[in-house]
Design goal:
The protein is α/β, with parallel strands linked by helices. It has an eight-stranded parallel β-sheet. Helix 6 runs parallel beside helix 8. It is globular, with a radius of gyration of 16 Å. It starts with a strand and ends with a helix.
């Protein structure tokens, strides 16, 4: 199934609860929450109190993206704050296998994120342990960037790898960075099914933008069924 996951990095933090509720009311069943520490990426975003407060206001699937060094330090706390899915960067944790185990031990879905220049082959040993792979289509740390074209080839390569190992129906492919309604059809054609969008949803009419994304997703689903 395909999902749009609005990234609150693009939201108005002065009206964050309102912005989130508007995406949910418009049909977005996921919410993307980027936790940044100023070490793994240059920026600092928000932490557990924000996630906990939003959890009380939303029934969306909380798709938490840990852009932090040594994310294993925070897995249980993030889980307790209301995350449904926790994604860590392959580049940020030394013991990736153990980190995935810790996420699952908390009863949460486990994802692995890859920076643009990290090849998908690094996942070969742990691919059967993940619920989602996040392909970064920009270098992480800042919103409003343009999608890097070669990352579409990474999505295709990952889709082929999942299909060859019989995992295509179980492991989601998420994309994050520079996604717009204009390039979304190319991203879907490459094989992604969970779409993160920040600026493209929260800048302007939130309801209309969310519905436009969903319209493209549903049209693609119908084409695949024919």
């Amino acid at each position: 199934m395909m999902h749009v996951s609005p990234s609150i990095l693009g939201a108005d933090f002065g009206n964050l609860r309102d912005n989130v509720m508007r995406t949910e009311a418009s049909g977005a069943d996921y919410l993307h929450l980027d936790v940044m520490d100023g070490l793994f990426v240059p920026s600092i975003s928000f932490g557990m109190p924000v996630i906990e407060q939003l959890r009380a206001a939303s029934k969306q699937v909380f798709d938490v993206h840990m852009m932090v060094q040594a994310p294993e330090r925070y897995i249980k706390t993030i889980a307790d704050c209301g995350a449904d899915s926790i994604t860590v960067h392959q580049e940020a944790t030394i013991h990736l296998d153990r980190t995935l185990y810790d996420i699952h031990s908390c009863g949460k879905k486990a994802g692995i994120a890859l920076n643009p220049a990290t090849p998908v082959d690094v996942l070969d040993c742990v691919l059967d342990q993940v619920d989602m792979v996040l392909i970064m289509t920009v270098n992480p740390g800042f919103g409003g960037q343009k999608l890097i074209p070669y990352t579409l080839d990474k999505i295709r390569a990952l889709r082929q790898k999942l299909e060859s190992r019989g995992l295509a129906g179980r492991v989601d492919i998420e994309v994050d960075g520079g996604v717009t309604c204009a390039n979304l059809p190319h991203i879907l054609e490459a094989g992604a099914n969970v779409i993160v969008a920040g600026s493209a949803i929260f800048h302007g009419d939130i309801e209309e933008n969310t519905k436009n994304f969903l319209k493209i997703l549903r049209a693609h689903e119908q084409e695949c069924e024919i």
